[in-house]
Design goal:
Structural class: alpha+beta
CATH architecture of the largest domain: 2-Layer Sandwich
Shape: globular
Distance between the termini: 57 Å
Strand content: 15-25%
Number of strands: 24
Number of domains: 6
Largest sheet: 5 strands, antiparallel
Number of helices: 23
Radius of gyration: 28 Å
Length: about 775
């Protein structure tokens, strides 16, 4: 249902060359990472293998595509696949070499991975039963697919401040999660016309919130105006300097709800004036398609009756979303043997639906899947990858789910049926969507005098629906090893209460629930209960070993900042060593830094200098005599020039000018710095004062609060308006010192995190 642009196809084919350059050492890992991540390829915690995320547009997948995925999982992926909470399918434990094979072979069946990672519009989610659901307003599948196609054709959508998530729901029940998306559409009919309620600036993870209602009704064929407008607003007003605030909801927090809505509508108006994005989709409201006289009495919640009489959908959720190819092939064979066509839809709950089944075949399928899918909600709970593979993960979330299921394995059905599906995240980032569950668990670490304990924050009461979406509320923290027993006691308490729904139970038995949490949260006996220091399935005491920065936001700014940092460091090292190679390396890094904005990413020195002249000297951003200087650099490199000492001032000017261009970048990554007015002036004389490079104070290894005291002393030595840098360790130093200096009235200009174990803080004196 989507068309793959030729440009995307060529990029996928070129991935092989990028891997080759990286393996040969012609492309460093930091510059390779943004390209790799934008292809949906993430480094796993072992630092030796990768996860590959496929794009399954709105969960729509064909049988032929599913066969290919099974084949690739057998060949390259350890014999299993993982269903995600965004209707994608992932391979895990893939070698770098085999990521190439997977991308190329997926392309043969029309599956791409481009845009499933990085700073891009992610997979557009859609209610998984859209088109067959009995309670749907209308089928929203095609609208979701058109939105995907729209952004695949737009190369600028691949370089947003961070990820952009869009969702479509076919009813007020919001099964597509529109009310917690960056932009969400919920189907609505008004005056016999198809349309949508529009929500925006919602999101999970850090500083989560439900979305604002932006429009009560828009015509269905106008959705792309609203999707494009939000993209442009994000592009122009999103925070590109702080990845922790680089989501659309932070624009809302900065502006306030009323101003956000007002400004968003201005973007919509602008897009409508400038572009024709009307969709040509048949908006006629139609009755259900063909029906069947055979029906069945539903006794299992894995079977869902469809709106077309006599047809059914069957939900399949393997343990923790992980399905072996052996079991997947059983499913494929069952579908292959049917005498009629069914449809498949990957769900947003780590599972997959087989739809349009006749009654007798729905019952047969239950027999096929009974070994790896279970009928109770608690068995079909969700858990993110967690610390087993994810570099951001704190706790072993999938192991916790296994422990919960084991605890409830022999529990009587009336107790087991009391709890809803549980949403488990291994940290606060909500990849397990803990904030939308009626029960949600989020991993955290608690420090004690004897070490760290893996814990989970218990959230209750999440609920998504039109006009009434709420996120779960945190009730308290419980050690990981106590969670299964706590849930069992909670289920017994719910059964004894007599309330029909879990939400009603929460509202009426709040005090009892809080008392139960308090009982299990107690760690006063932790010295005796040494088991609490171990996570499920781990033989080592709990620690943060292996945890590191995530790769979701890897993008061009990271690459630019690295080159700039290298350029400035090499220049400073020349001041100490007077080695000409330091000036050469500094100038090369500076010249390369901004070329990525022009679509140039090469390691060949001559091409770097040539492209820099073309894009920045000839266009007037950099003074013209720098062209001659770059020629002298080549002469030095080939041995025709012995020393670069006479060109030190040119190098200083070049580095500072590139820094100034970088600092002037607009949110759309356009250079706003005024061009050089006189290209023939001596850059040394004109910019002598401007290019003075501030000193950098090394405070690595200095603990809090002594590092702040030393930083204050250094600040007292410089004049007002002068800049200074501090090297600070990860953790408390980089968390505390910037806040303390800011509290003193100084301006924090930049925090460069592109170093191993430490950071460069740049401060301007008040």
């Amino acid at each position: 249902m989507i068309s793959i642009p030729e440009k995307v196809i060529n990029e996928i084919k070129n991935y092989r060359n990028k891997v080759s350059d990286y393996e040969k050492g012609n492309l460093d890992g930091f510059r390779f990472k943004p390209y790799r991540v934008s292809m949906g390829i993430y480094e796993q915690r072992d630092l030796e293998t990768y996860m590959v995320r496929t794009r399954i547009p709105s969960g729509i997948i064909t049988l032929a595509q599913l066969k290919k995925i099974s084949e690739l999982a057998d060949k390259y992926g350890n014999g299993y696949i993982h269903f995600t909470t965004r209707q994608d399918i992932q391979f895990h434990g893939i070698t770098l070499k085999n990521t190439v094979h997977i991308l190329e072979e997926l392309l043969e069946v029309g599956i791409i991975t481009r845009g499933t990672g990085g700073n891009t519009p992610r997979n557009v989610t859609c209610s998984p039963l859209s088109g067959v659901s009995k309670d749907e307003v209308f089928d929203v599948t095609e609208y979701a697919a058109k939105t995907t196609s729209h952004f695949l054709k737009d190369p600028t959508a691949l370089n947003l401040p961070r990820k952009y998530k869009i969702a479509f729901s076919n009813s007020p029940a919001d099964t597509g999660y529109a009310t917690v998306a960056d932009l969400g559409f919920i189907a609505k009919i008004k005056d016999n016309q198809k349309g949508f309620e529009v929500y925006g600036a919602g999101g999970l993870g850090g500083s989560p919130t439900t979305g604002l209602k932006l429009e009560d009704f828009i015509p269905a064929n106008e959705i792309l105006y609203y999707a494009q407008a939000m993209k442009e607003m994000f592009e122009n007003e999103g925070d590109r300097t702080n990845k922790h605030k680089a989501r659309i909801r932070f624009i809302r927090y900065r502006l306030g709800d009323d101003e956000f809505i007002k400004r968003y509508k201005e973007y919509v108006k602008k897009v409508k004036e400038e572009r024709d994005l009307h969709l040509n989709i048949d908006e006629t409201i139609k009755d259900s398609h063909i029906t069947n006289e055979d029906t069945l009495e539903i006794k299992n919640n894995l079977i869902i009756e469809q709106k077309n009489k006599g047809f059914y959908s069957v939900y399949i959720q393997p343990d923790k979303g992980n399905l072996t190819t052996g079991n997947l092939n059983k499913l494929i064979k069952f579908i292959d043997d049917l005498s009629y066509e069914v449809s498949l839809r990957v769900a947003n709950t780590q599972g997959i639906f087989v739809r349009d089944l006749k009654a007798k075949d729905a019952e047969k399928l239950l027999k096929v899947i009974e070994e790896f899918t279970y009928g109770f909600d608690i068995d079909n709970s969700i858990a993110c990858a967690g610390a087993a593979t994810c570099k951001l993960g704190l706790c072993l979330s999938q192991n916790l789910l296994s422990a919960i299921k084991q605890k409830f394995k022999t529990v009587e059905p009336k107790i087991k049926s009391q709890l809803p599906r549980i949403f488990i995240s291994g940290c606060s980032n909500s990849c397990g969507q803990h904030q939308i569950g009626k029960i949600g668990l989020a991993g955290k670490a608690k420090r004690t005098e004897n070490g760290l304990i893996p814990m989970y924050t218990i959230h209750f009461g999440g609920n998504l629906e039109s006009n009434n979406a709420v996120l779960g509320e945190a009730y308290g923290d419980i050690p990981a090893k106590k969670v299964p027993k706590f849930l069992y006691e909670l289920a017994k308490l719910k059964e004894q209460s007599g309330y029909n729904t879990f939400i009603e139970f929460l509202k009426k038995e709040g005090n009892s629930i809080e008392g139960l949490i308090e009982k299990f949260a107690n760690i006063e006996t932790v010295k005796e209960e040494t088991d609490l220091y171990y996570d499920f399935g781990s033989e080592e005491r709990f620690s943060l070993k292996g945890r590191g920065p995530g790769e979701c936001s890897a993008g061009v700014l990271d690459v630019i900042k690295l080159d700039l940092s290298n350029a400035e460091t090499e220049l400073q090292e020349y001041d100490k060593s007077k080695e000409s190679i330091k000036l050469y390396n500094s100038s090369l890094s500076a010249a390369r830094a901004l070329l990525i904005l022009k679509g140039v990413d090469t390691t060949k020195d001559r091409i770097i200098f040539k492209e820099f002249i073309k894009h920045f000297v000839e266009t007037g951003y950099v003074k013209s005599n720098i062209e001659e200087y770059l020629g002298n650099l080549i002469d030095y490199k080939i041995g025709d020039l012995e020393s670069l000492d006479d060109y030190y001032d040119n190098a200083r000017y070049l580095v500072q000018r590139v820094r100034d261009m970088y600092d002037s970048l607009s949110p759309k990554l356009e250079i706003t710095l005024e061009k050089e007015s006189d290209k023939n002036k001596n850059p040394v004389e004109e910019d002598k004062k401007e290019v003075e490079i501030s000193k950098t104070i090394d405070l690595r290894g200095v603990k809090c609060p002594i590092n702040f005291v030393k930083a204050k002393i250094e600040m007292s030595k410089i004049t007002s308006g002068e800049e200074i840098g501090f090297l600070l360790d990860d953790g408390e130093p980089i968390d505390n010192v910037p806040r303390s200096l800011e509290g003193e009235g100084h301006q924090i200009l930049d925090i460069d995190t592109n170093y191993e174990g430490y950071n460069l803080l740049t401060v301007k004196k008040k």
